[in-house]
Design a protein that fits this description.
By secondary structure, the chain is an alpha+beta fold. The protein has 2 domains: about 120 residues, Glutaredoxin; about 100 residues, Glutathione S-transferase Yfyf (Class Pi), Chain A, domain 2 (Up-down Bundle), CATH 1.20.1050.10. Helices cover about 55% and strands about 10% of the residues. Strands 2-1-3-4 form a 4-stranded mixed β-sheet, covered by helices on one side. Helix 4 packs antiparallel against helix 5, helix 4 packs parallel to helix 6 and helix 5 crosses helix 7. The longest helix is centred in the middle third of the chain and has 31 residues. The protein is globular. Keywords: Transferase. Belongs to the GST superfamily. This is Glutathione S-transferase. Pfam families: GST_C, GST_N.
């Protein structure tokens, strides 16, 4: 059994998709980041960066004590290695998929996240920041569109590279991106959305967070919790 510490964010969706695809038994432990539950001591012992997702695998392949992990990319890689699925086993295929996994972690996720922050969450609308991140998101969409030209998935077969990237494209409208401008990306997006495991993963979201599929609003208290952190908020 795997405990998944989860909230209904793109990074959270990555892990529910992977677990559903792999058919691994898991239990969701909700961590409501809008209420500050990511600062609870029990959670920080698993995820010292106070971010979801995190997992505890109670049956690691080495037969040892339960293993905890934070960071969505590390978790995806762990699950792929644990099962021998969703990641090519040959040297070149594996590293092709991994470079796109890290592309998402270092580029698409952070840039789309800043896009969303300055476009929707920031209390002050700063035109330069909004334009900067909308344009960078578009550039990254174009990179992915080029990679997907003539292929069904990012790195050959369906892999954790696709699982990592898809949730960050779900919010394309809020990111001010038109998928019609990226035809190969659009075909890929629709292909991933049609997968039963992906549909099951997203169906979980409103069960955990009833507001998951509603209008994306943020209160002042939530804004302070999510975006008002500095060195003093790290429990040491």
């Amino acid at each position: 059994m795997i405990d998944l510490y989860y909230w209904t964010t793109p990074n959270g969706h990555k892990i529910t998709i992977a677990l559903e695809e792999l058919g691994l038994p898991y239990r969701i432990v909700p961590v409501n980041i809008g209420k500050g539950e990511q600062f609870a001591a029990d959670f920080l012992r698993i995820a010292p960066n106070n971010r979801i997702p995190a997992i505890v695998d109670h049956a690691p392949v080495d037969g040892g004590a339960p293993l905890s992990l934070f960071e969505s990319g590390a978790i995806l890689l762990y699950l792929a290695d644990k099962t021998g699925q969703l990641l090519p086993q040959d040297l070149r295929g594996r590293n092709d998929a991994l470079q796109w996994l890290f592309w998402q972690m270092a580029g698409l996720g952070p840039m789309a996240g800043q896009n969303n922050h300055f476009g929707h969450a920031a209390p002050e609308k700063i035109p330069y920041a909004i334009t900067r991140y909308v344009n960078e998101t578009a550039r990254l969409y174009a990179v992915l569109d080029k990679q997907l030209s003539g292929r069904d998935y990012i790195a050959g077969d369906y892999s954790i590279a696709d699982i990592a990237s898809y949730p960050w494209i779900v919010g394309h409208v809020r990111q001010q991106q038109n998928l019609d401008d990226f035809p190969s990306l659009k075909r890929w997006f629709e292909r991933i959305a049609a997968r039963p495991a992906v549909q099951r993963a997203y169906a979980l979201a409103p069960q955990i967070n009833p507001a998951a599929n509603g209008p994306k609003t943020i209160s002042d208290d939530e804004r302070k919790l999510l975006y008002g952190q500095d060195a003093s908020t790290v429990v040491r």
